[in-house]
Every structure is written in C-alpha cells, then in structure tokens.
Fold this protein.
Amino acid sequence: MAEHDDLLASIAATTADYRAGEIAAPTPDHVERWVNQFDAAVQEPILREMDHVLKKTYFSKETINGFLKGLIRNDQLVGNDPNTFWMAANFLDIQQGGGSQHDLLSVFDENLKAELGIGINECGGSKVIAEELPTKVAADKAYQNAMKNSDKQNARIEHDKALERAVIELLTDHTELFKQFSDNPSFKKWLSETIFAATYADAS
C-alpha cells in the first residue's frame, strides 16, 4: 500500500493547480476515487503510468509563468528592445472548440503587463499606434509650427505636448493606452520616441 499511497499523493501534487479557482484542488482521496473505477488488478499499473505521464506532460501555472517571463525578455528572440518587439507582435485567438488558446493568451497577457507594462491588446502594430496617433500628432498646429520654425529639440517638446493631447483625445475608446501612457514611464518613453521618429521624419 505504501507505493499506492505515494502514487496517489504524487499525482495530486503534480496537478495541484488544475483549474485553480474553479474546482477544489485535487487530493489523494480524489485520485483514489477516480482510479477505483478500474479493476483492482490494474489500478497500480494505471497509477504508475498516470504519475509518469503527468510528470512529463503536465505544466503548472508556475512553470508556465516562469517560461513566459523568460520568453518576454529573451534577447535571442526580442533583441535589446522587448517593448518594440512585442508591440509589433500579433497574437491569434481563433480557437473554435475549447478555451486553451484563450487561457494561454490570458496568462501571457498577465506576464506581459507585469514585465513590460503593456497588454496584448496594445500589440500587433495596433492601428491606433501605427496610424491614428501619428496622424493626430502630425496634424497638431503647434507641432507643425515648431518643425517649420524651430530646431529638433524644441520640435520634440511640442511633439510631446501634441502626443499627450492626442492620447487624451483617444481616452474614451482606448483606456488601456491612456493608462499605460500615464502610469508606465517606459511605455510612454517608447511611444513618444516611436511617434516622434515617424512624424518628424515626415516633416523633414
């Protein structure tokens, strides 16, 4: 019975966070109730194989979070500017049956916000960043005047003011963008440099 009990405890421990928050955490008693549906003669082999397979194939949320955090800042993937890389990345959420893709995206979104302060809704060459903001900023009269009649440093000052006005103008439809711009200095710096490079280059 010692091996039997050890296998029950091992399987319960491996799957401890399965559907955490939705159902009660697995326990040895729960695993035993499950295996009791089989004939006594095959229960031990089933438990051994289940324990072996789960240890090889079950990924806890802690393991997934650790992997994703490393991925987000992996310089072989993202280079030396992870914000720029992920802001240009596209994420598919097209699974028709089941919810594993959506669940994984949700976990990645949590990690991306924790690591870089941006969510996947801001990624993918977002139209608001790629098109709307540059258009609004480039049309700003004070910024246009600074580009025509002043140096690059003063133009940058007017650009930053124009960008802030544009972000506020988009607040109603893009609350997460406004929040990141207001609360996340690294995102604000990246966005300002990106929009300035696009708009000032167009004017020069």
User: Anything to note?
Assistant: The CA atoms of residues 109 and 119 lie 5 Å apart.
